[in-house]
TrEMBL record:
Source organism (scientific name): Nitrosomonas ureae
Family: Belongs to the lysine N(6)-hydroxylase/L-ornithine N(5)-oxygenase family.
Highest taxon, organism lineage: Bacteria
Annotated GO MF terms: oxidoreductase activity
Name recorded for this polypeptide: Lysine N6-hydroxylase/L-ornithine N5-oxygenase
Database matches in Pfam families: Lys_Orn_oxgnase
InterPro entries: FAD/NAD-bd_sf, Lys/Orn_oxygenase
GO biological process, one term: intracellular iron ion homeostasis
Pathway, per record: Siderophore biosynthesis
């Protein structure tokens, strides 16, 4: 079987940026053969949150390449130039393009690598290939939409699969009810609930706020309850000194900080990235509730300091048992549809790596995002977007993506050099090890 230097699981922004980095290193005389596997049928980035008037919260300069190589073909500025929109974008006088435009930029970049990406395949497991007393290769097994299983061999692996929707425990029993869905599926699912007259939005972050405003504009007859544990909607702090935590050198600081201190740092700046919408969006929501007071109507409700204790599926809707933390009492409310803007968890990679866990210790990573492994385990496995606890809050964002891929690529080159200096290549059959 063909042996790749690197296989990437997922082909979102992080792995597209890595493909760009490897391509530019190849042009500089450092060739690698890489391949990527993406479960979506074609490139899409948060497709179900492409809301009208939604903009990026990160500067376009923190694109797939600029922070690593401003002269790259793959910068957002060059994308605008190739699309004949550079002058028009300059006239907008903004660092924050629309989410729709940035998605088009990402798709444009991804399109350069169609020859080395398999879309519509979901990786189902990663298996070790053992020779003598060493694990020298990995067998990546994926299944396409026709249920055909594909196998590929690689010397190294990078996992960049984004987050999996976090479903609160109170919704665990009804998570498959079509009237309850995560913000990750919002635009797709809300079409099925055009007749809904009472909708709950659970969450306190950017997604919850955007969805509230989208629902507000969809129909004058729809009532929306915005439900959150917090007392108020807190804006993201993007002031200059605070924003320095997203600088690439801050990654070094966090990683080199004693583990017991990292939690304090993450906690101090937690609201820069979580449960922190843009101030403009908060002002829009405040204005909605103020105009209700002016008109003396009670269409929407802001249920602050409320916790969903229980959610039950009934024939007439989803019934909440809400605990009001303000006066310590419970009440019930029934909804036609429920949107969970409750964030993501980022540990799904562990299930993919289950067959390798005996060699991977505790899945801790080094500074170059490589999982620490046993001496007999030779393949390098890298994580993108799953190292917040060790590398800081910027890990799940675009802020460090371009520079991170350069660090991973350099580590990969070291792995390749070590492999080339080792014993001669062996022939590997298609049988499972």
């Amino acid at each position: 079987m063909k042996i790749f230097d690197l296989i990437g699981i997922g082909f979102g922004p992080s792995n597209i940026a890595l493909a760009i980095t490897l391509e530019e290193k190849k042009q500089a005389g450092y060739p690698t053969e890489s391949f990527f596997i993406e479960k979506q049928p074609s490139f899409a980035w948060h497709a179900n949150m492409m809301l009208d008037n939604a903009h990026m919260q990160v500067s376009f300069l923190k694109d797939l390449a600029t922070m690593r190589n401003p002269a790259s073909h793959f910068t957002f500025i060059n994308y605008l130039h190739e699309k004949s929109r550079l002058q028009d974008f300059i006239n907008l006088k903004t660092f924050f393009p629309s989410r729709r435009e940035f998605n088009d930029y990402l798709a444009w970049a991804a399109g350069h690598f169609d020859h080395c990406c398999a879309y519509g395949e979901e990786v189902i497991e990663v298996l070790p290939e053992k020779f003598s007393d060493e694990i020298s290769l990995l067998r990546v097994r994926s299944r396409d939409k026709r249920q055909i299983v594909h196998e590929r061999l690689t010397r190294s692996l990078v996992i960049s699969i984004g987050g999996q929707p976090r479903i609160p425990e109170s919704f665990a029993q009804i998570k498959d009810d079509p009237r309850v869905f995560h913000s990750n599926d919002y635009l797709k699912q809300i079409k099925q609930h055009a007749q809904a007259r009472k909708i709950a939005v659970v969450g306190a972050g950017q997604s919850a706020s955007e969805i509230f405003m989208d629902l507000h504009h969809r129909s004058d007859a729809t009532q929306i309850d915005l439900i959150m544990r917090a007392r108020s909607i807190k804006p993201s702090d993007d002031s200059p000194f605070v924003n320095e935590i997203f600088n690439t050198d801050f990654t070094d600081f966090v990683f080199n900080t004693p583990e017991q201190e990292r939690g304090r740092i993450l906690g101090e700046f937690w609201h820069t990235n979580y449960a922190a919408p843009d101030l403009v969006l908060i002002e829009q929501i405040y204005n909605v509730f103020y105009q209700q007071k002016v008109a003396d109507i009670k269409r929407h409700r802001f249920l602050r300091r409320h916790v969903v204790r229980k959610a039950i599926a009934q024939s007439d809707g989803i019934q909440f048992t809400l605990h009001d933390l303000n006066d310590d009492r419970e009440k019930t409310s029934t909804y036609d549809a429920v949107v969970l803007a409750t964030g993501y968890h980022r540990d799904h990679y562990k299930s993919l790596l289950a067959p390798l866990m005996p060699y991977l210790k505790d899945c801790s990573v080094n500074r170059q995002y490589r999982i620490n492994s046993a001496p007999s385990f030779k393949p390098a496995i890298f994580l993108q977007g799953a190292c917040e606890n060790s590398h800081g809050l910027s890990d799940t964002l675009l802020s460090v993506t371009a520079v991170r891929t350069d660090e991973i690529a350099q580590e990969l080159m070291n792995v390749i050099n070590q492999s080339n200096s080792a014993q001669p290549q062996r022939t590997v059959t298609s049988a499972l090890a």
